[in-house]
Specification:
With about 210 residues, the protein is an alpha/beta fold. It has helices at about 15-25, 30-40, 45-55, 60-70, 90-100, 110-120, 135, 155-170, 175-180, 195-205, and strands at about 1-5, 25-30, 80-85, 105-110, 120-125, 130, 185. The strands form 2 sheets. Strands 2-3-1-4-7 form a 5-stranded parallel β-sheet, with helices on both faces. Strands 5-6 form a two-stranded antiparallel sheet. The longest helix has 15 residues, at about 155-170.
Length: about 210
């Protein structure tokens, strides 16, 4: 089973992708992870991507698509995968159809007001742990390592609103794209707890 996972920033795609992959025996493929791996290994396509990133530019669609195509050629994805962060627009979706067969597009639907609250209230630690101010009860240290918690620089209302606007313009049209192919399944309870959302996902996937 090959899955495309959609959802606005803060919808919890990463959390659900990991759980879906584990339950169904799939490979979780995060676009960000692929980029970092290629750059770290200094692959030819990684060098191209790094040249854009270092210049502060967006990596072109053709480079992103090629990185994903190469990843999907590896043997470990033979049983299926969850694509997290790709495709991001219709150009990438059309290109994906040329080298992959997608079975399901899962869209995690979350109200934008809640997304704003969720992202702006996020606090992280250098160890990788993530929290929300609603559950910290005023604490400002990590429960795992004792490190100082902080808000990411881009977790502010202005930046988040800009990210959501970009998502609505570029990525949201994919909902109609996969809907027209009868591959779309919408998770309507995206505002609930990760466990409740995952239960809904499993109900859709069977």
């Amino acid at each position: 089973m090959n899955i495309v996972l959609l959802g606005a920033p803060g919808a919890g795609k990463g959390t659900q992708a990991v759980r879906i992959a584990e339950k169904y025996g799939l490979v979780h493929i995060s676009t960000g992870d692929i980029f970092r791996a290629n750059i770290k290994d200094n692959t030819p396509i990684g060098q191209v991507a790094k040249s854009y990133i270092d210049a502060g530019k967006l990596v072109p669609d053709e480079v992103t698509c090629e990185i994903v195509r190469q990843r999907l050629e590896k043997k470990d994805v033979s049983a299926g995968y969850v694509l997290d962060g790709f495709p991001r627009n219709l150009i990438q979706a059309h290109e994906l159809d040329k080298f992959a067969s997608i079975d399901v597009c899962l869209d995690i639907d979350v109200d934008e007001a809640l997304l704003l609250e969720r992202i702006c209230g996020r606090r992280v630690c250098s160890c990788g742990a993530s929290y929300h101010i609603s559950t910290l009860n005023g604490k400002d240290t990590c429960a795992k390592c004792g490190g100082k918690l902080y808000a990411r620089e881009d977790d502010n209302p202005e930046t988040v609103k800009a990210r959501l606007a970009t998502y609505n313009i570029q990525t949201a049209p994919l909902i109609s794209y996969y809907g027209a192919q009868n591959k779309l399944k919408t998770v309507m309870c995206g505002t609930k707890t990760p466990d409740e959302v995952f239960a809904a996902v499993c109900g859709l996937l069977g």
